[in-house]
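Exercise 3.2. Students should predict the tertiary structure of the chain below and write it as structure tokens, then compare their answer with the key that follows.

Predict this chain's 3D structure.
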Amino acid sequence: MSHPNQTSPVQRGVFLRTHFLCQEIPPPPPSLSVSAPDPSPELTTRQRFAEHSANPACAGCHRLIDSVGFIFEGFDENAKRRLMDGRFPVDESGEILSPPDPSLAGSILNPKNLAEKLAQSTSVSQCLSSWWIRYALARRSTDADACVLQTLSRSLEQNLPFSTFLSTLVSSPDRLSRPRILVESILDPWLTFSEALANQASMQNQP
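Answer key:
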């Protein structure tokens, strides 16, 4: 998740917050410019994005977003590993602020440290499981999915083979009896456009 010519700690931070912590990040006010600052070999990414934390209109959300987005600065705009940010060594440190699971709060050294911390959190396992349910069933999880969600989360927490996780997901009663309906017009990144087209074609072929 990057811009064509530079990394994007904002996009990366929002994705981690929404898809691993299940925190909703509100959109920026319409009056604010959301263009990324131009790349400069004289400034690191952190320095160029410093305005986010300095501007009171931006700081509220960006202190949550950028602080985790910076952890992925060791990967360039093409997701290739890098050691330099312009003329400066890459700084992969960051911080998780105000997470839903208090045990996640604190400083992060690098992506490996982040992964280790996320893997130990029950709330992260539940969040990831809810997103997989959302993908498999083309809808948000509900209270009726509590048993499946618990089983999926437990398989992640116990580090069971991923095949076990998928088997639980695809054998859920709702998945097996899922009606062929058109996915709602607002699709998440996890729901593919091709699936929506397939569902639409199925509806059109019904008598």
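Discussion points: The chain has two domains: 2-119, 122-205. The chain has a mean pLDDT of 83.
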